[in-house]
Amino acid sequence: MSIRVTQNILNQNLLFNLQRTNKTMDQLQEQVSSGRKISKPSDNPVTAVRGMFYRSSLNEIDQYKRNADDGLAWMTVTDESLDEVTSVLQRVRELTIQGTNGTNSDTDRNAIANEINQLKEHLGEIANAQIGGKYIFAGTDVKTPPYDTASKQFSNTNNDKLELVVGQTNTIQINVEGTSVFNNDEAGGVFKVLGDIVADFRSPNSSSTDHLTQLDSQMDNLLRERSELGARMNRMELSMSRIEGLEVSTTRLLSNEEDVDMAEVITNLKTQENVQRAALSVGARIIQPSLVDFLR
Amino acid sequence: MTSTFHSLEVGKRGLAAQQAALSTTGHNIANANTTGYTRQRAEMQASNSVSIPGMQIKLGTGVDVTKIVRLREDYLDVQLRGENKTLGYWEAKSDTLTKVEELLNEPSDDGLATTMDEFWKGWEELAKNPDSAAARAVIRQKGVAMADTFQHISQSLTQIQDDLKLVITSRTDEINSLATQIGSLNDQISRLVPNKFQPNDLYDQRDVLIDQLSKLVEVKVSPPDKDTGVVDISVGGVSLVSAKGPNKLTVGYDSATGLVDPAKILIGDTNVSLNSGELLGRIESYGIVGGDTKSIIPTINDKINALAKTFADAVNSIHQSGMNLDNINGVSTEKVPFFIGTSAKDLAVNPKIMNSLNLIAAAKEDASGQSSIGNGTIAQEIANIKFKPLAFPGSSSTADDYYRNIIGQLGIDSQEAQRLESNSEVIINQVENRRQSVSGVSLDEEMANMIKFQQAYNASARMVSVMDECLDKIINGMGRVGL
To answer: What is the per-residue pLDDT across B258-269, written as a single tens digit (0 to 9) for each?
Structure first.
């Protein structure tokens, strides 16, 4: 039996098919306006779940980047401080050599002692260096000045490490322990050495010769700490560039999953528009005339 | 020799029959756009012939309209109704699943996943700056955002569920109202059919109502009774409408869980098990006792609650092992949980922490039970929960993973429901086309018929005129030769 076609069937089919092209157009238009392939998980569950994963990864990466930035800032300030300590020790060494020279008068020696004393005070200021209100040489006891200005001693004993996470399994220590720079022998450290030199130069007669040895040992210690810090800074910078690389690749993955190919979508949209236009114009022709129009 | 008036009678019958056919055509045209209307046709039959005495022939006596038939194919009704229930079922399910998808709003930059990421980032920041009151205030706010998001999801799910309960009630009412209407049509029909009437239009109305009913529940329709024209309708083997009249469908709820109790879905007093249809789809969306994962809202709700609880427990247990500022400064030894509450509905940041930022623990206790203000180890450990597998019911995964699974499963379920819904739509469209092809009114056809019947009517009238002239000849012209 052949299908008997009535006006209502034509009507209904036209409506049904127009509805379908409209629905496709709606989807495509949403893709164009949002720039994303999917708007609900059911559009494509796999894409949705992967998209969520990459989004979350990007959030992690963002945090790692901030951590690395903060860590580098901290380490840079530390390095600058240690550089200043080096300069101070070098000047002290020059002055000590000058002071131990037998041709100096008491006044000269006093003047040298005073300058070294000033440098010692400055060293105290460096030991109390801060970043964002935190003492950088104080371990985790960041709110208490590690160098006690009253007793003129490096009084901090906190050896805790400050560590930052810059990758799921990558943790980098950012601080240099104050005690190992300013109190490496746990007997007063560099302040004691400087204090001894000052006291020695102030007393007219005594002349000790092991000051230079002690200063050199402090200098060695300082260089060791600085080189370790430098190595850690290198690591941090490496991590930073790795994180940035990861950010680029993850962003690309997310974009591959979620972002629409505009050229493709717009082409599809145009195709759908043509289909709809054709359907509408054909519909207008099919639906209208019937025998009624021709019977008078 | 036949009666002189015989042919006049034949003409008259022709006029009557063509007129009946014309009015049927008119009826068809008038109802061309009536929902559920079945085109009708006047069935004509040559009336009984008469024998003419003395001649070996039978002479035709014209035409009779024996009946006016509905042109309909029962098999297509069965097919349409069978598919209608599937459409109703999946429409209801995909409706709910889409609502849940919209509620969870993933993947996006402001769903629960992002809020959770922000929360972990807050702890990382605190780990870097444990001494900073600002970092503490930030993590407290992110905790509040976390709790608010969970609460919002939970409340919205409850809202959807409440709406579904209303829908179930209105659908039940609709079913009962349809049953009542079908019952009363049955009644009218049963009074006409025994008297040899053909209530075609009542049949149509009844079929439309049955079509509507078939979308709500799975119906089985008996063939109409030969003597009375009454149909019986049963749902899941239990009679909903019979010759005795309609029964009432009721849906009851379990008092403990508040879910629909399958033992309390009754027609009259008999328990009925629903197999398909919109009502079942709504009931399953709302939640049914023993429905397991078919119960959409309770399943999602349980998962979100498990996520909230496991997440909060993990944060709390580490938080309580750490030292807060009051502990470090020796103000107090009290260690408080970060979150309070055991489900998504009542999760909140501890009010004590809302009062004092000092109670947020960021520092780890050393061997001697001390710690310092710059120690952020505990904050870092909390931030690391992001990567730690937690013990969720039925699986061990990270909180992120567990939530992604919820979304993935939801997406798959919703996709399936939408696919089956659109499949059913296509099939129904095809069956509906077939049905229209058999039963629908074609205006072209009706117009052609109209001309056909009009011409036949005219010809019959002419026949009467011709006989009139013949009689005139006999009556007025005979025997007047030469006058």
So the answer is: 999 999 999 999
A213 belongs to a structural domain: yes
Same domain, B212 and B84: yes
Which residue bears the tokens 């450290």?
A189
Would you state the structure tokens that stand for residue B401, as one six-digit string? Answer: 């993973």
Enclosing domain of residue B247: 77-104+161-292
Inter-CA distances, B328 with B235, B370, B371, Å: 71, 7, 6
A292 touches chain B (CB under 8 A): yes
Domain shared by A138 and A274, yes or no? no
With 0.95 as the threshold, say if the pTM is over it.
no
Same-domain check for residues A68 and A82: yes
Same domain for B129 and B165, yes or no, is: no
Only one residue has tokens 């012939």, namely: B49
ipTM value:
0.83
B125: closest CA among B248, A189, B133, A92? Answer: B133
The answer to whether position B437 is within a domain reads no
Contact (CB, 8 A) for B78 and B64:
no
pLDDT digits (tens, 9 = 90+) for A6-57: 888 888 888 888 888 898 999 899 999 988 888 899 999 999 999 999 999 9
Domain containing residue A183: 54-254
Residue A95's Cβ-side half-sphere holds a number of Cα atoms within 13 Å equal to 25
User: Which of A22, A24, A27, A291 would best serve as a mutation to test chain B binding (most B beta carbons within 10 A)?
Assistant: A291
Mutation target among A52, A170, A172 for the B interface, most CBs of B within 10 A:
A52
